[in-house]
Amino acid sequence: MNMDNYLNERIENMFLNKIFHFNSTIKNNFKIRHKTNYPELTRQVIQKAIRDLKVWRHLLAMLPDDNIKWNIKKQLDEFKIK
Question: What angle do CA 7, 11, 16 make, to 5 degrees?
Fold first, then answer.
């Protein structure tokens, strides 16, 4: 495996991990938003996760390599949180 392939895989994994993390944070916090003692804090956590998710999706759109973008978008389409 040469260095370019390694770096491309690391970039893909970084984007996928961040986007999956923020998606799951948003969905999990929406489930418990009315059951917590501090709903205002939960709202702030959700808003921060939405902002971070927008940033990572914007960075994904700005990637110069279309092959990496295509691989990431394909994996994002296959991913579903139940």
Answer: 150
